[in-house]
Design a protein that fits this description.
By secondary structure, the protein is an alpha/beta fold. The protein has a single domain, classed as Vaccinia Virus protein VP39 (Rossmann fold). It is built from six helices and eleven strands. Strands 1-2-11-10-3-4-8-5-9 form a nine-stranded mixed beta sheet, with helices on both faces. Helix 4 packs across helix 5 (188-196) and helix 5 runs parallel beside helix 6 (207-223). The two termini are 28 Å apart.
Length: 242
């Protein structure tokens, strides 16, 4: 399948399409996955949520509902678990119970609050971990971290801050490994992969967001890395058992 955009030197690629249809066509062995699916917030009901533009994704014929999460996002994560050694998902809070049982759970803790939920400003964003931590027994990292960084201006409704997301990319992957993000959005996962020396594949159903991620990556690559990624020990790998 021809990518929407790719960079052979750094092993980065964007594919445009439905990830349920695209993933089986890629014919690649992925080491790990990391993604931020839509949250199933059903349009962000409530005045404050509507003002913040929740769920206003472009170029899709589906709604950001719990039913869509169960129909689309959960099967994609099931497939990622089946073909990858390890991975992580930031599922949001509304539909977290729909996702497969994780091996562990962490969070991004945002004391200032970054969203509006039924009971007020949200300060906790869960992280679900799957597979085996490659650092286990050799200096494991915490499962979560405090986040004060905010995302910069973006044409995407839910961009991820590059600092915390880079931390998560480094937590679930090693240098040189191939990471897949089936809900690429604005391209933050691939930017982090480039900075950290990982290869990365992103899939995005919206052509508008594919173009946004492409422009962002081309700008990032044109600036070059400030530092070369550090080498990481490579202990024995264990595939995910379901």
């Amino acid at each position: 399948m021809k990518p929407y955009w790719h960079n052979e030197e750094y092993g980065l690629a964007i594919y445009h399409g439905d990830c349920l249809e695209v993933m089986p066509q890629l014919g690649q062995e992925f080491d790990c996955f990391l993604t931020d699916p839509f949250y199933g917030v059903d349009g962000g009901r409530g005045g404050q949520a509507r003002e913040r533009g929740k769920a206003r994704y472009q170029g899709n014929d589906w709604q950001d509902t719990p039913e869509a999460v169960e129909r689309v996002a959960v099967p994609v994560i099931d497939r990622c678990i089946a073909v990858c050694l390890r991975g992580a998902v930031t599922p949001g809070i509304a539909c977290i119970g729909l996702y497969p049982q994780p091996a562990d759970m962490g969070c991004f803790w945002t004391p200032a609050g970054i969203g509006v939920g039924p009971w007020g400003f949200t300060t906790f964003q869960p992280i679900l971990y799957y597979g085996k931590d490659y650092r286990a027994g050799i200096g494991a990292w915490p499962t979560g971290r405090q986040v004060t960084e905010r995302s910069g201006p973006s044409e995407h409704p839910c961009p991820k801050p590059i600092g915390p997301w880079s931390w998560l990319v480094e937590k679930v992957s090693q240098k040189g490994e191939l990471v897949i993000d089936p809900f690429l959005g604005s391209g933050t996962t691939l930017v982090a992969c480039y900075r950290l020396g990982r290869r990365g594949v992103g899939i995005e159903i919206s052509e508008e967001y594919c173009e946004l991620a492409k422009r962002r990556l081309e700008k990032e690559l044109s600036q070059g890395r400030l530092f070369e990624p550090a080498e990481v020990a490579n202990p024995k790998q264990t595939a995910i058992e379901i």
